[in-house]
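Hi L., both proteins are below.
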Amino acid sequence: MVIVRAKDYQDMSRKAANIISAQVIMKPKAVLGLATGGTPVGTYAQLIDWYKKGDIDFSQITTINLDEYRGLPKTHEQSYWYFMHEQFFNHVNVDESRINVPDGMNPDSEKACREYDNVIREAGGIDLQLLGIGVDGHIGFNEPGNAFELETHCVDLTEQTIKSNQRFFGDGESVPKQAYTMGIKSIMQARKVLMVVNGKEKAEIVKKAFFGPVTPEIQASILQMHPDFTIVGDEEALSLI
C-alpha cells in the first residue's frame, strides 16, 4: 500500500490525475475502471484540462464503470451513465463504443450481472481501478456485510444509502432501492487500484479500513491485500494515520 499525502482537494485531484494519465501514456489502450461520486470529480476535471492542452489522449482506452442504479434509464440525470458523460466523457475523446456501464434497465438481474462480468473479461481485465470510499467503508455498492461478494451482483441498498440519496431525487419513493455493482473479486483483480479520499469525515474509516482487521464489515479493508494499491488523500482524510 502506497499513501500519497495531498494538501487539499485540488492537490489530491491533481496527484490522482497524474497517476491515471501516467497509466494512459504508458498504455494507450488501457482499461480504466471508473467511479462516480463527488470525490473523483476534481480528478476528472484535471484530466479534462490536460486533454484540452493536448497532454493526454483517451481515444484508445476502454472504460468500465463500477456500478449503476437498477431501474434508471441512461438519460435520467441521476444515472451513473449520465454522471460520467456530464463529468468526463463528453469533454474528452473517449470512443463511445468503448464505454461500459452496467445496464440498469435490464430487468433480469442475473443476466445483467453475468454480461457485465463478460465485459470485464473480454476487455482483458482492468489495468487501473479508481475508487472512492464511503464513511462505512463501502466501495462501489459493496455495502458492509458478512461476506465479500465476488463478481458483479445486484444489491439491495441500505436504508442509510437510500436516505442519503433522497436529496438527489426529491422524494423517497423515486429513490432507487437496488443497484448493480462490480464485486470485490473483480476490483481485486484490477492490476492497480487507486483510491481518492478527502475530508475529515473520512479520517476514521481510512484508519479502520487500512490499519485495522480485514473484514467484510468494512468492505474496503480487503484492499490491504492488493499488491498495487495507492491511496491519495488530503490532510484531513489522512489525519489519523
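That was the first. Here is the second:
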Amino acid sequence: MDHNALDTSSISFTAHYTAYIWYLQKWSNPAFVTRQGRLYHALMQPLEMITRGLLGQDVRTTLLTRHALIDRELEKNIAAGHHQVLELACGLSPRGWSLRSRHPELLYIEADLPAMAAHKAQLLSRLDCDLRRHRAVACNILAESGPLSLESVLNSHFDRQQAITVISEGLVNYFDRATINAVWARLGRALSAFPQTCYLTDNYIELTDHPLAGVVRQANRLLALATRSSFTTHFRDDAEAREQFQACGFSRLNSFDPNIELAHSDLPKARGGAVVRVLRATV
C-alpha cells in the first residue's frame, strides 16, 4: 500500500518533518511518513549538524524531548483514570495510534484544521483503527463558536462525567500572547465542566542570555518569510507562566525542563540548556 498516495499538499513543513523524526526514533508507523518529510529531513541535515556541533543541540533534540515528556505525563494520567484524550493540532503525530495500541480502552480524538483532519482520518482508517474510539475531527482553536470550535469538539465527542486530558504539541508558539491567552481562557472554562482535567503543552521559553538566542531570532525571521507565520515566546520564566495560566482559569501549573526530567534517558540532551518546556496545567 502506498501511504504517500494520500494528498499531502495542505500539510505544513513542520508536520512533515516532525513525523519523519518520530519515525526514525521508532515511535511511529510508516503510514505517517511522507515523501516531503524525507526530503525536508535530508535538506535539514547540514544545518542540524552545524547547530549540534557549535551549540550542542538541534531541532531533533527539542522535538524528541518534548514529545517524550508529554507522553510521560499522559501515561501518568491514564494510570490515574484519564481515559479520554483530545489532541489539538494533531498533524501527523503517531501518539494516538501508539497509545491506543497499549491502552485500547482510551477514547482518543485527534483534532486539526479541516484538510489535515480529513487526511488524518484517512490514515487512521487505513491503519484499521477502531474509529468508534479513535478518530480525527475538524477543529479551529480560534473559532469561538460553531462546529469547528474547541467547545463544540469537547461537547460533541466526550463524556463530561469522565476525566479528560487535552494535548497540544508544536502549536502554541505560533500565536502571539494575546491570541493564545484567549484560547487558554476558553479551554479553562470548557474544562471546568469535567470532574478531572489536565492540559499538556510544550512552550518555548523567552531567550535572552541563552547561547541559542541569536540563532532562534534568525530562525524566526526565516520562518516568517518562508511560511508567513512567526514564532512567539510567551513567558520569561515559570513564575510568569503560572501567573498567566491562573488568569486563564487554571489552578495549578507544573513546568518540566527536558534536561532535568530526562537526564537519565537515552534521548539526546541540549547542551547549554533546553529551549523548550512541557507545561502541565489543571483547572
